[in-house]
User: Fold this.
Amino acid sequence: MTRARTIVLVLLVFALGAGLVFAGGQGGSSGGGEGAVSPAPAAAPAATPAAPGSLPRRETLYFNGILWDKVNQWNPYGVGGVSFGIDGTNARQLIYETLFLYDLLSGTLKPQLGLSYAWNGQTLTVQLRQDVKFWDGSGMTAADVVNSYDLQKKYATGFSAFWPFIESVTAQGNYTVVIRGNPRNFNPKQIESSISRLYITQKAEMDKVVARIGGGETALGQWTNVAGDQIETQSGTGPYKPYIWDETKAVLQRVDTYWGVALYGKLPAPRYVAHAVYKDNATGDAAFRAAEVDISQQFISSVWTMFNANISTFIPQAPYYFPGVIPMIIFNTKDPRLADPVVRKAIAMVLDYDTIGKNAMSGYTAPYVPSLMLPVPAEQALIDVDALKSYQWSGSLTELVAQANKLLDDAGWARGADGIRSKGGVRLAGIRAECPQGWSDWNASLEVVAQAGKNIGIDIQTYFPIATVWTTDQQNGTFDIIMESPGGIGIASPWSRAYAALSSTDLPPEGTPNAIGNHGRWVNQEADTIISQIASETDAAKLKQLWTRLNIIYLQEIPVAGLMYRPGVFHTVNETVWTGYPKMNDGSGVPPTLCIDGYGIKGLYNLRNK
Assistant:
């Protein structure tokens, strides 16, 4: 793969993943069924769009916080379009499906289109279910899976980023797929991520699409899969199919011939899944309170004030939501004002984490402890917690401000008459901390960052441009401090977070757009080596040593600074119409991922009318 193509691919990866970031900021293995149940005949699709009120309320599950504009594409491999029920990062399982389902609670993969998988050295062998049907009734085989991978190699899509870790994907018979890792870039977690994120489509249908769109590198990502008001192909296997979409709403209708009855023992409970297009959070919140919305993915300030007999969150008390990402401030290490690790560490030390957690995040975070890891058992087990303590900072804010000021004094950053520090002609003034306007929780967080600077003689000013400017600044490195959430949620976490926040291995040349991560362009060869070693290390003891050392380097250099533990999704439910949503310790084992992301899809089968 050429360097130019790699840059194109990572730009497209960012564009696809941006949907999750924007929604979050704005709002925010074995298995089987209990036996097959004869499905009812499929309902005929609607000829013309229906008004929202025409959907039977007790058969319709309503969402908010996912869709903020009119749907303009239903492409499972689309880049930059607006969709509902399809997401390249969260792997929503409504329309198109993946081989396996990521379970946020256990950190494992559960069977879906795939039955099992096993590693043999650097080769992953996947056994497929033999009863999977596409919407047109044809059976899924290994040829469909191989073609789905090959499409991402031929075209530049968000899923093309898996190919640097893969040497080949081949079929052995009709129901076995062999994925060989790239021996020069072996990363088993990235390959496992591919089997839980890549949507599988029908080869026969996609061959027709390829013949029509041609071989241009971006052609598949730009294909909309829409003809008028109808979906163009029948290449999905999922339990729902696009039904109505216009400026006000998007509605999916259940596929009553869905093959998954054999897996789950029944069809999902809602006949329709719908999302109105709300103009802002306040409008969406009002609809949620009024039980016009059943599942909210919006950021709701002080959600506990909404609690009643029907409205609740997965966790009944603070932090209310399951932690999934670590929003961070990224320092532009090429800026002379922020190139000194002492300056970066001093800023990190005096951040008022309590205020960020309680005010900006409404308490939806556990107390932040400086490290690269989330406060969940699976990630905490990867580090030697005691070995990190001497590198971390703790104490009252007054004590930490005093320590940070001494650190800067000792490093020669002297205060001027106006209280602003400088050294060697470099003055710590006019530093802008940036995130998109309207992202209320992020905006409030950066106000805390600005105040932190004042306490130690560093002039930090907040800057809230529109989201497209923020994205451009992020990719081009035209920022001082920028807020983002490196990495994502999935089987490759926390490696994906460390890679996105710290690795300089694959950075494009300076002066060219960077959508890979490490937007501050920090370079540390030892960190790069460790991140590479972690990718393929399987020995638990060695992994712990590597993760601990990487965290020590991070705490010494602070190229980025975590602000909070943010929920991956804001799973808030209203049980006025539907009940049976997953709750903490309810014995269901279903994660709080909106009943549609990864293994959360199982939640749709547990719902019932109240």
